[in-house]
Specification:
alpha/beta; Rossmann fold; two-stranded parallel sheet
Length: 342
């Protein structure tokens, strides 16, 4: 089995991708420090797959710590790099934290991949690299605009770092830059899902925690945007669909060795924050306590993907709906509460 290092593999998207790697015959190795996860996620992976992957508790921004993983796991054939802080609002408040962790871990990983002759990289990028787009849907040829947040800027810089290394004469590294739109939902088994530590920064876990009584109310950041109901539009993609895109990315790299290319990973359809709330209320039967607050710094008004390139070149497209995602997210929230009671 091909051995794949997954940095941040105990996190939200990382854990779902680890499950898909196992399901597709790969041997994942997880490097994570639980900065935004818990050990119970590893148990969930094992419940779903029947396999407990190799795990190393390390800080991926520390070259000394991450080197120990490469030394302990010979013959790594590829890396998926998730390890990064990811909250737009927090990055505005604490930019240096994001520069140190997100840019530092990227540099450390690229250096170690070069040292250990690992040539295939799939990078967890983001649609935030496009800033506020001039036209929709966004394609891979859309201009990379000035970032609206330090988080978005770190994704832009990481993409540039990878592109520069790919072009360098002393390396044969190939890379796929997966530009995610808005991952939501949980595994349909409810054994793994989004597990924010403290107050959630993302919409859906805040919705489910409010419905569960953990949060008093949800704040919708602005209802005066130029959209159908005044709330922001995003392209919400089920996390299991997103996870499969990483498998397709490695298959693409096998056919296009040494290449470096970006791919949008989204549904191609935008939904407003209000539509997400309405969908949750419909599938869960719960009335959600929410209020409208001021706009949030760093937010763009509307963005959704053209996934045509990924559909055609990666042979990938989404299978699950917004309704599926909200059903799975609510089932996961209920499972967490049951787990914590026991």
């Amino acid at each position: 089995m091909k051995k794949i290092l997954v940095t941040g593999g105990a996190g939200y998207i990382g854990s779902h991708t680890v499950v898909e790697l196992i399901n597709h015959g790969y041997s994942p190795v997880i490097a994570d420090n639980f900065s935004n996860s818990k050990p119970m996620i590893l148990d969930g992976i094992e419940k779903i797959t029947g396999m407990k992957p190799a795990f190393y508790k390390v800080d991926c921004a520390s070259k000394e710590e991450l080197r120990t993983v490469f030394e302990a796991e010979p013959n790594i054939e590829g890396v998926i790099h998730f390890a990064a802080f990811k909250a737009v609002g927090e990055s505005v408040a604490e930019p240096l934290k994001y520069y140190h962790n997100n840019l530092g871990s990227m540099q450390v990983l690229l250096e170690l991949m070069n040292d250990f002759k690992v040539s295939n990289l799939v990078f967890s990028s983001s649609c935030t690299i496009y800033g506020q787009p001039d036209s929709l849907p966004v394609t891979e040829d859309s201009p990379v605009k000035p970032a609206n947040s330090p988080y978005g800027y770190t994704k832009q810089v990481c993409e540039q770092m990878i592109t520069d290394v790919n072009k360098a004469a002393n390396t044969d590294m190939g890379a796929v830059l997966l530009r995610y739109f808005n991952p939501i939902g949980a595994h349909s088994s409810a054994h793994i899902g989004e597990l924010p530590l403290g107050v959630p920064n993302n919409l859906v876990p805040f919705i489910t925690q409010t419905a569960a009584g953990i949060r008093e109310k949800l704040t919708v950041f602005g209802n005066d945007y130029d959209t159908i109901d005044g709330t922001c539009i995003r392209d919400y993609i089920h996390v299991q669909d997103l996870a499969v895109a990483h498998i397709r990315a490695f298959e693409w790299l096998e056919k296009n060795a040494g290449s470096c290319s970006p791919f949008n990973v989204g549904t191609g359809k935008g939904s407003t924050v209000k539509e997400v709330i309405d969908t949750f209320e419909k599938v869960s039967g719960q009335r959600l306590n929410y209020e409208v607050g001021p706009r949030r710094s760093g937010d763009v008004e509307s963005i959704f993907a053209s996934p045509k390139k990924a559909n055609e070149e990666l042979n990938w497209k989404t299978q699950k709906s917004l309704q599926n995602a909200m059903e799975d997210a609510w089932r996961w929230q209920q499972n967490i509460m049951s787990y914590e009671k026991n």
